[in-house]
């Protein structure tokens, strides 16, 4: 996650619209979940066609690809030193799309997954 908290309106909207979660499995078998919430870390892929104030993803950045909008969400592994075995997407059921139609099963697509190696900090410089 980005480290900051979303606004009260984003938290309220997210509480109503849990689309699913990322399931992270570590090498030692521990499983953790990262919620996927509409308007917090994801929006619909057609978002770029009808952007307007109040229709914003507070913890993710939009990325346009081939006429669709995807959202880049950064999550920092809280278990430093523990290797991640797998990441899966688990969608909620019964979610309604922007036209009010129920989408059966998984309404979320994980397009890409990347990682950044841990950065080392420079050695401190002694004051003279």
Textual characterization of the structure:
This protein starts with 7 loop residues before the first helix and ends in a 25-residue tail after the last strand. By secondary structure, it is mostly beta strands. The protein is extended and about 65 Å long. It contains one helix and seven strands; from the N terminus they run αβββββββ. The protein has one helix at residues 8-16; strands at 18-26, 31-37, 60-65, 68-73, 84-91, 95-96, 102-103. Helices cover 7% and strands 31% of the residues. Mean pLDDT is 77; it is low at 1-15. The chain has a three-stranded antiparallel sheet. It has one domain (8-103).
Layout of SSEs?
Layout: H1 8-16, E1 18-26, E2 31-37, E3 60-65, E4 68-73, E5 84-91, E6 95-96, E7 102-103
Antiparallel strand pairs: 1-2, 1-5, 3-4, 6-7
Let me know the average pLDDT.
Answer: 77
Q: Strand-and-helix sequence, N→C? A: HEEEEEEE
* Molecular shape: extended
Major pleated sheet: 3 strands, antiparallel
- The percent range for helix content is under 10%
Beta-strand percentage?
A: 25-35%
- Distance between the terminal alpha carbons, to the nearest Å? 39 Å
Radius of gyration: 17 Å
The structure class reads mainly beta
Largest sheet strand order? 2-1-5
Please, how many helices?
1
**Low-pLDDT residue intervals, each spanning 5 or more residues:** 1-15
Count of distinct structural domains:
1
Strand elements, count: 7
Question: What's a concise summary of this model?
Answer:
By secondary structure, the chain is mostly beta strands. It is 7% helix and 31% strand. β1 and β2 (31-37) form a beta hairpin.
């Amino acid at each position: 996650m980005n480290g900051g908290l979303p606004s009260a309106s984003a938290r309220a909207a997210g509480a109503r619209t849990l689309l699913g979660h990322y399931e992270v499995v570590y090498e030692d078998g521990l499983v953790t979940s990262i919620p996927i919430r509409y308007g917090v870390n994801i929006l619909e892929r057609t978002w770029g066609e009808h952007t307007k104030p109040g229709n914003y993803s507070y913890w993710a950045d939009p990325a346009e690809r081939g006429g669709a909008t995807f959202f880049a969400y950064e999550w920092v592994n809280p278990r430093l030193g523990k290797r991640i075995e797998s990441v899966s997407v688990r969608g909620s059921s019964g979610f309604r799309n922007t036209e009010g139609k129920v989408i059966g099963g998984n309404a979320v697509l994980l397009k890409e997954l990347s990682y950044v190696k841990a950065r080392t900090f420079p050695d401190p410089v002694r004051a003279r």
